[in-house]
# Entry
Amino acid sequence: MPQTTDANTFLELVAPVRDSLYRFSLRNVWQQDQAGDVLQEAVMTAWRNFSQFEQGTNFKAWMFKILLNTLYRLNRKSHRAKAASIDAGALDAGGYIEKEDAWTSILMEPERVKEALDDRIVQALESLADMERYCFLLRLLEDFSYREISEQLEIPLGTVMSHVYRARMKLRERLTEMAMETGIIK
# Structure
C-alpha cells in the first residue's frame, strides 16, 4: 500500500482522467449500473499499485490499462448474452419513417429518435469482440494514438490498427442493417 503522502498525488492525478475513465467504463459494461463499480474497482487497484507507477510517465494510459484489465476480467467472468432484441418499431409505429415525414418526426420528437439510435449504437458496439471495442473506443473516443493503445494492451501496432478497422467496418455494416430494419433507410 502506498504511503499516505502519496494519497494527494494520486488524487491529483486521478481527478483529470476520472470522467474519461467513467465514460469508457460505461461503454464497456453490460449492465449500465455497474460502470461506477467497475471504475471504483479499477481506482482501488491503481491505488494499491500506485507505488509501481513511474512518476513522469503517462498516468492516463496507466489508469486505462488497469481499467481495461478490470473490464476484461469482469466481462470474461459474466458470460452474458451479447445479443439484444431489436425493437423494429422503436422509431415509428408503422415500422419506418417516410422520407417526406422524416424531418418532421425528427424535429418534433428528437428524444425518441435519439433514444432509439443510441440503443442501436450501444447494441452495435456490444456486438464487437472485446478487443475490437476497446481499441475502437480508445482510438476514436478517448483519442489515444495507435502506438499508445499498442503499448497499453501489449499487442502489436498492426493488430491495433486491424482491430480499429474491423470495428469500423462491423459498425458500419451493423448500423446499416439496423437502419434498414427500422426503415430509417430503404
About this structure: Residues 30 and 180 are 25 Å apart (CA to CA).
